[in-house]
Amino acid sequence: MRAGDVSSVDLTDEAIARIEREDGVINAICVPDFDRARAAARRADQVRARGGDGPLLGVPVTVKECYDVAGLPTTWGMPEHRDHVPAEDAVQVSRLKAAGAVVLGKTNVPLGLQDVQSFNEIHGTTTNPWDHGRTAGGSSGGSAAALASGFGALSIGSDLAGSLRTPAHFCGVYAHKPTLGLLATRGMVAPSEPVLPVEFDLAVVGPMARTARDLALLFDVMAGPDPLTSGKACSVTLPPARHDRLGDFRVLVLDDHPVIPTGSAVRAAVSRVAEALAGSGARVERHSPLLPDLTEAATLYTQLLFSGSVARFPVDSYEQLRIHAAGLSPDDRSLDATRLRAMVFSHRDWMEANHRRELHRHAWRRLFGEFDAVVCPITPTPAFPHDHDPDPLARVLDVDGVEHPYFDQLVWAGVATTPGLPATAVPAGRSPEGLPVGVQIVGPAFEDRTPLRLAELLEQEIGGFRPPGLEVRRKQK
Description:
Number of helices: 13
Distance between the termini: 14 Å
Number of domains: 2
InterPro entries: Amidase_CS, Amidase_dom, AS_sf, FAAH2
CATH topology of the largest domain: Amidase signature (AS) enzymes
CATH class of the largest domain: Alpha Beta
Domain Amidase: 10-450
Shape: globular
CATH architecture of the largest domain: Alpha-Beta Complex
Structural class: alpha+beta
Number of strands: 17
Strand content: 15-25%
Protein name: Amidase
């Protein structure tokens, strides 16, 4: 656009045409906003013609359904809220528009954002662009599928249990889970809740893109505190990446977790990244005594995640959970048992878990004195077939022919989520079936540019995993 070879109207019309042609099968765009998008594209071209510019001026983007966009429904997939239409944009939507972005519409999510898949009664099922019989991931599955299908260049999502990273891994795109508290979240709220500048315990909002460089660009647009709270006194100036050359990085590479095995396709992707790092001269280690105990980390993450997820359960439902939890054997230390016990945590229980989290955070600080980043899986497998069993606890995950509890796949996401660390999802190859496979680069807290820069350098080294591009017709000179 800056070169004058293509206009925002060109890009927007091409993206809309692609959506209208292909999204009937993918079902990524659940709330289109094409008329306002075309009007915004015309305004962007007028601004550019007058010599104006902006970080995202005229760039077509999508927004995860859970963000408030004035005039569009925000339902979180909940049928009882299908008519909820907010009057104001979320903070991050406002920042997109202020940067000049053209919002094409909203992308699909699971019910209440609480699944590793994206389907709900209102908007149906989002399929994986690479295999329609498989999930695109969740809860930012619609955004990842939209990017992989060429429905815009950027999207914004959120992450509590890998909801940015898992869909990116399943669909072959990039995503960044920022340091906890770094990006303002106001307006990314369930329709039953007031729009307040709440600080979440684990959840973050973050960028998604088709390239690592674009991911960093969108991150800069989103970064910064809420103007209603700490933004009154503070601004964000993040340190630069620790290194600018691939060979200068010190990286700990992990592919084994004590709770659940890593599938062969994911293990191969991790090895591919490790070989690229070592081949470029980076210091690569496979083990470190500084690494916090992964079993304890998985238990702690499960406790914090599930105690928060049921905090507003009806009293009768809570009482049933309490009865079930009381019936567990004291010797049962499985994650299934941990989940059930966490659902009926007392405040004292939560405080004890939070204290142990602080100990883990301190351990991570020590580790990042020795290493610059940790490379590890996002989930144990590539995208799996759709599974809409109404009881998620009855679902299973197939890892190389062996079944495991469905929610055990979240433990790799928890590696970064529990201590609030930044983590960048990077495409790293394909499975034997041709499915995308990604890895995550976990970095030090409030040093988000380190994993983002490492992602960009790895993209240059291993070529990324480019989904189909927008087929934009260039204007005749």
